[in-house]
Here is the input.
Amino acid sequence: MISLKETNMNIIKIHLLFVICINISICMASSLSGGTITNKTIVALSDTIINAAKPFNIIHVDTVFGNDINSGSSRQNALKTIQAAIIKSQDDDTILVWPGVYNETVDFYGKAVTVKSAADAAVISNPNGYGVRFHSAEGYDSILKNFVIRDCVYAVQVESSSPVIENVTVVQNLQGIIADGVADPNIANSIFWANQFGDLVNCDAQFSWIQDCQSGSAASENDGTGVGSPMFTDPNSNDFHLKSEMGRFYPEPVEQPAMFGVADGVWVVDRVTSSCIDAGDPELDPSLEGSSNGGRLNIGAYGGTPYASKSEYPLAADFNRDGIVDLIDFAVLSSQWLDTMPWHQ
Here is the structure.
């Protein structure tokens, strides 16, 4: 089996070859048309090749099995803290955070990286301060997604920055997300609940579930934002999966996850279904939620992942689940027309 690292290196080699061919073609065209290939052109070509050869890294973090002296190159060699991964990271890196409770402040330090859960949503908690901070002119290429942020003084502080914050569940903090200075965070597909002094201050959220908006916040009526009980499984036991009659994931305790495996757990059904299921941005592809999704992203920390609570797919004839009933689906139907199972009468 080809490893993820080998796959990334193959992509880089193909990209590098493509860039070299394009630049050689430009140089040849310039020469044939009477143009001159200057030192500046050669330097620009060299810079392009060097930038194309830079690999993007995936850095793993595991609070249970990790150690900050590790390389972070795999879960087996994971770092222990998210902050150590950010310090180690370079722009365009992705930091995968495995299940567990991370008692720390996650400061992006201005880096254009994606920090997201690797499996069932990880938890960021800091009873003495900030959960997450963006205060170094971060832009839309600084991304936080698929986390539960709970039991913090401030769940997230955004100061003079414009990060993307999506599919987070912000619960049981003194304050939810607070924006200071010239801040313009892009917040979407998230749940805000039981934050003592408010959910959003000087910022807004789209396609999100908000219990209480403070003055200076906004929850537009036409952007899909909802208000009401999110129907968590058991918030008193810190289980914030959404109840579903079609099925929800019931995890093993995060203190005892499967060794280097995907999060352990079982699927169970409820008597009610949360309104936060299939409530996300309708323009986003929900296919990572598996085949038992309602054709629309769930909101909250588990949305857009295989651990999202299930719902009924609305297009029964969309056999390949590509979001459209077309000739491909008809071909599937016609190829099996009148086929029967042995037990059919």
In short: The longest helix spans residues 4-32. The longest strand covers residues 143-150. Confidence is low (pLDDT under 50) at residues 1-9, 11-33, 35-54, 214-222. The helical segments are 4-32, 39-53, 82-88, 327-335.
